[in-house]
Specification:
This protein is an all-alpha fold. It has one domain. The protein is about 75% helix and about 0% strand. A two-stranded antiparallel ribbon has the order 1-2. Strand 1 and strand 2 form a beta hairpin. The radius of gyration is 21 Å and the shape is globular. The termini are far apart. The relative contact order is 0.14.
Length: about 325
């Protein structure tokens, strides 16, 4: 048993080291891309374009942000329903918003999201183990939306991503079709109601088909809205298809998650600049990315921080039994 424990510890350490090195490699590559692209321009160009963003652009980006976070927060409602836990809906939505607002902007998103939710659900009937199940449920919901978005964008706009990123492949249709087949398998698994799947000492069971479709729809809506919040800030957004842009946006988000830097900052921007730099002026892309960070990241994070502070002050003044 001690030897098994040591072997398990070595595997965990190796995974952490590999993850750290991969994240570091992505971050260094991203910084190189940003330096190469932005080194040709001045900050004054970016600020001048930033000032020219129109009120409708900012309003549409803000609306997409609000609706996107509403879709994210509703995932907690679905999770509580699946776990058969009755709690006030406002508490679930608030905890969901807080969890995602912090997780989207800080490293170790799963851990941060779980910790924030634990603070908001404390005192209710949601135990630590149930909170962990909820976080895993939301992670699986995220994966369902990713499969759906990847399947749709890579299948119906198969040449957009290779064209924008200048990849040596001609089409992403095979990858898109693979994602749709995987999603179809999960839906079929839900319809059949099993069997259970055992992975790394965890048992996974399908949710009812109505729940699976709801999770997929909510997560897909989040992907669409978060991409739209940036898309409307880019100049000449009508010049290329949104579905093609969404594929690049998703690649940037996933790369940022792998890098494990706060909010994917730097890595996400590098993917977007690398993809659009030849069709859109680089200063205009940087201006849109700055506005996007303020609207989609800093605004929700600031609001979540204020709410969290008020919540903690209220808890501190509650009588202890």
């Amino acid at each position: 048993m001690p030897e098994q424990q040591r072997a398990g510890r070595r595997r965990r350490v190796a995974k952490r080291v590999i993850g750290f090195l991969l994240g570091l490699l992505l971050l260094l590559g991203a910084l190189w891309v940003l330096h190469r692209e932005f080194g040709k321009h001045s900050i004054h160009e970016v600020l001048a374009i930033l000032q020219r963003l129109t009120l409708p652009q900012i309003a549409l980006s803000l609306l997409a942000t609000i609706l996107g976070y509403a879709a994210l927060a509703s995932q907690d409602l679905l999770a509580l329903s699946a776990l058969q836990i009755r709690l006030p809906k406002w508490k679930a939505v608030l905890a969901g918003f807080e969890g995602f607002a912090f997780a989207n902007n800080l490293p170790f998103a799963v851990v941060v999201g779980g910790a924030v939710r634990a603070r908001f659900y404390r005192g209710s009937r949601l135990s630590t183990s149930k909170t962990t199940q909820l976080v895993l449920f939301n992670t699986a919901t995220y994966a369902l939306g990713l499969l759906a978005a990847t399947g749709l964008t890579f299948t119906f706009e198969p040449r957009s991503v290779p064209g924008l990123l200048h990849l040596p492949i001609q089409s992403t249709r095979p990858l898109g079709e693979f994602a749709l087949v995987a999603l179809g398998f999960l839906i079929y698994w839900s319809i059949r109601g099993g069997p259970s799947i055992h992975i790394f000492k965890r048992t996974f069971r399908p949710t009812p088909i109505a729940m699976t479709l709801s999770r997929t729809g909510v997560s897909l809506l989040d992907w669409i809205l978060s991409g739209a919040a940036l898309f409307v800030l880019l100049p000449g957004a009508d010049a290329y298809h949104f579905i093609g842009f969404l594929g690049v946006f998703m690649l940037g988000q996933v790369a940022g998650l792998i890098a494990q830097v706060p909010g994917g900052i730097g890595v996400f921007e590098a993917v977007i600049v690398g993809a659009l730099g030849r069709s859109v002026p680089v200063p205009a892309i940087f201006a849109a990315l700055i506005a996007y960070r303020v609207i989609y990241s800093l605004f929700p994070l600031g609001l979540a921080t204020v709410i969290f502070g008020v919540h903690e002050i209220g808890r501190a003044h509650q009588p202890h039994h």
